[in-house]
Amino acid sequence: MDRIARAFRRPEKRAALIPFLTAGDPSFDASFALFREVIAAGADLVEIGIPYSDPLADGPVIQAASLRSLRAGFSLPKAFELTAALRRDTEAGLVLFTYVNPLFQYTPERFFRDAKAAGADGVIVPDLPVEESDPVRAVADRYGVALIPLIAPTSGEERVARVCAAARGFVYCVSSLGVTGERAHVSARVRELVAMARRYTSLPLCVGFGVSAPDHVQSIAEYADGVIVGSALIRRLERAMADWPEDEAAWAEAVRSFVRELNFPLLRQAGM
Ligand SMILES: O=P(O)(O)OC[C@@H](O)[C@@H](O)c1c[nH]c2ccccc12
């Protein structure tokens, strides 16, 4: 069974917890250690954000993380290096996150070749519309890397059906419009979106955008197969870096404890 599918079949949990961190934030080595921490803390899959200078779908927290990483000299080749290092260390699912621009500059052929060689299981390209995804998916399929699509509450049924028909790995159900960033409440509309997508795919359906507290995780886990958290996790990292500028162990503790806090409702739901 492939690593993405396996992440959703852990008997002890109702839903998979999927943290997002920006690769190379705040440095290559620190970032590698932080990814290992969130996996050790219970993440079933991780989203590895490849920093980009114009992250149009990202809110201020992830924009700042991308900037820290780029200023530390991070680059797309280093993202494959980091992924390969993580692959040597874990069997967790590794999903790369990039935008259309860097993907086409590098070319899909080289990107998926290098992603596969590095041990990546999937790739998410949030600004690649389904109308233009066929040729990219053909390359991804050839390398056996899942091109994971996104749907949003504004996606009509026809579009949901079309995206689900082309989906690989899982379907990312964006909870609300706008950019990434913590929200006090995760929109209830995403529950309907997931219910609609269930009619068009048997792949796992994961919800992201705005998740920032255990009760968000618990309510999403009642109807979805995975919960994605990015900005809230990165903000705790930011706070730890501000409070303990040189203490990487403190940064690791900050992300580890937050992932455990978010994971707790999933374990409780499974009767752990
Ligand atoms: O940061 P949030 O609100 O927790 O949302 C997840 C998000 O970080 C991650 O999945 C992501 C990072 N960049 C994106 C761009 C588009 C869609 C999703 C993303």
From TrEMBL:
Its EC number is 4.2.1.20. This is Tryptophan synthase alpha chain. GO terms for cellular component: cytosol. NCBIfam families: trpA. Keywords: Amino-acid biosynthesis, Aromatic amino acid biosynthesis, Lyase, Tryptophan biosynthesis. Pathway: Amino-acid biosynthesis; L-tryptophan biosynthesis; L-tryptophan from chorismate: step 5/5. It catalyses: (1S,2R)-1-C-(indol-3-yl)glycerol 3-phosphate + L-serine = D-glyceraldehyde 3-phosphate + L-tryptophan + H2O. The active site is at E47 (proton acceptor), D58 (proton acceptor). The gene is trpA.
